[in-house]
């Protein structure tokens, strides 16, 4: 049986600002698996993207159809393993390197972020790094319910004797020290099975991260992070949300409805097979209807094995109505979650959409109407040598994972156990792994 270290998914060591590194992201989604291999090289400060210390140069890339996945979770371990092997191998061939470990996003398991406040008396008078770690660890464990594991424990601010807004408390004097933190959790079983599928391929999972968080690292501008923004990552099997405010990631949520549900609605509503419904969604999927759409007719092959079944004739308006009803439902669920989050108190905050399902025609306009906020489509920012297909919103997560190592220093990491925990494969959950490979 697999085990997660200290109730927290694997976390990586912070990157050194003056060292290069080779990184690999592996996005195991419901509809596609994308693997990206990149070199991270130290770069001069970027006025547009302040948090980035390294330039990301893509050297290997693959995208294949996903297998053995449903709603962002593993449903067939053997099929998922085969697909992961294929995706990683194709990216390795292009990059001409061998990958030893990967960064992995999580979109399933009912992602949940909550702001936790933890405080403790200080023994020595001045706040030490061990005080920060101790209080943060207490808050993290307090936020972790049974059956769930921590993806992120991110301090959002500190307090000294009740005075909030302290950015760096180290060395400052107080009797009581507190921390406000965003703790993001997922179902432990979902994380374990994703790790198991990867480790069966003789790869180490160096770190796991919430999909909407890393999507935000890819698509948000500094102004959006500072003034407030919600990233809505619209995948095939899940829709996940990350809220940023005052330069920090402060909330996460998610639910298991996505673009695949639009496909299934079309298949049922048009009497078509799933493959034809997916093709119709890709070519004609829109949430907008005009007067001519009622008169514009198209032929849809009937579902079934018999050649005798007469094809259906449907209007473009019928297709648009089916698509719009499901997409409206998704945004209504997003609206309810944002209303219960700190985003509700940010009147200037905007919504940025990412993920493949966000690319349906008219989605930003519909989202803006339902959510009552300005909405734009997010695309990867500040990347060199991205292939054209990877410049779209559907690659926000795998590109964001390549940026994520530069933000690893912000996270609280539980001390790793010395005991190694076998997973039933050649991998170990307890080991640090050799993710940074320098001197190439």
Automatic annotation (TrEMBL):
Listed InterPro entries: ATPase_NBD, Cell_div_FtsA, FtsA/MreB, SHS2_FtsA
Domain SHS2: 23-219
Subcellular location: Cell inner membrane
One GO CC term on file: cell division site
Gene3D superfamilies reported in the protein's UniProt record: 3.30.1490.110, 3.30.420.40
Annotated membrane topology: Peripheral membrane protein
An individual GO BP term: FtsZ-dependent cytokinesis
Family note: Belongs to the FtsA/MreB family.
Protein task: Cell division protein that is involved in the assembly of the Z ring. May serve as a membrane anchor for the Z ring.
Subunit: Self-interacts. Interacts with FtsZ.
Name the UniProt record assigns to this protein: Cell division protein FtsA
Gene label: ftsA
């Amino acid at each position: 049986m697999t085990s997660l270290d200290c109730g927290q998914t694997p976390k990586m060591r912070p990157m050194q600002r003056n060292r290069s590194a080779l990184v690999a992201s592996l996005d195991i989604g419901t509809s596609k698996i994308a693997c990206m291999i990149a070199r991270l090289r130290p770069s001069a400060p970027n006025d547009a993207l302040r948090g980035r210390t390294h330039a990301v140069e893509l050297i290997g890339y693959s995208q294949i159809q996903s297998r053995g996945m449903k709603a962002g979770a593993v449903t067939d371990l053997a099929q998922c393993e085969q697909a992961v092997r294929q995706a990683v191998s194709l990216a390795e061939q292009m990059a001409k390197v061998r990958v030893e470990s990967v960064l992995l996003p999580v979109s399933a398991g009912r992602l949940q972020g909550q702001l936790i406040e933890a405080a403790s008396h200080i023994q020595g008078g001045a706040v030490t790094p061990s005080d920060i770690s101790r209080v943060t660890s207490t808050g993290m464990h307090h936020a972790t319910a049974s059956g769930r594991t921590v993806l992120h424990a991110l301090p959002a601010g500190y307090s000294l004797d009740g005075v909030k807004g302290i950015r760096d408390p180290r060395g400052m004097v107080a009797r009581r020290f507190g921390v406000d933190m965003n703790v993001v959790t997922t179902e432990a079983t979902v994380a374990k099975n994703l790790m198991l599928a990867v480790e069966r391929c003789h790869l180490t999972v160096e770190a796991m991260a919430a999909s909407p968080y890393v999507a935000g690292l890819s698509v948000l501008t500094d102004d959006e992070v500072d003034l407030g923004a919600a990233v809505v990552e619209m995948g095939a099997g899940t829709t996940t949300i990350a809220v940023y405010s005052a330069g920090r990631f402060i909330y996460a949520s998610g639910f298991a409805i996505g673009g695949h549900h639009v496909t299934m609605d079309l298949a049922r509503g048009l009497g078509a097979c799933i493959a034809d419904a997916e093709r119709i969604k890709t070519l004609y999927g829109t949430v907008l209807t005009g007067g001519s759409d009622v008169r514009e007719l198209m032929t849809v092959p009937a579902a079934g094995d018999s050649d005798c079944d007469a094809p259906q004739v449907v209007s473009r308006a019928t297709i648009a109505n089916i698509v719009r009803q499901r997409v409206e439902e998704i945004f209504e669920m997003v609206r309810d979650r944002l209303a219960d989050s700190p985003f509700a108190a940010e009147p200037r905050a905007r919504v940025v959409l990412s993920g493949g399902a966000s690319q349906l025609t008219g989605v930003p306009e519909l989202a803006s109407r339902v959510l009552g906020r300005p909405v734009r489509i997010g695309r990867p920012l500040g990347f060199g040598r991205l292939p054209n297909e990877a410049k779209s919103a559907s690659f926000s997560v795998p590109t964001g994972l390549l940026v994520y190592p530069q933000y690893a220093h912000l996270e609280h990491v539980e001390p790793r156990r010395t005991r190694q925990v076998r997973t039933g494969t050649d991998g170990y959950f307890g080991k640090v792994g050799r993710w940074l490979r320098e001197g190439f």
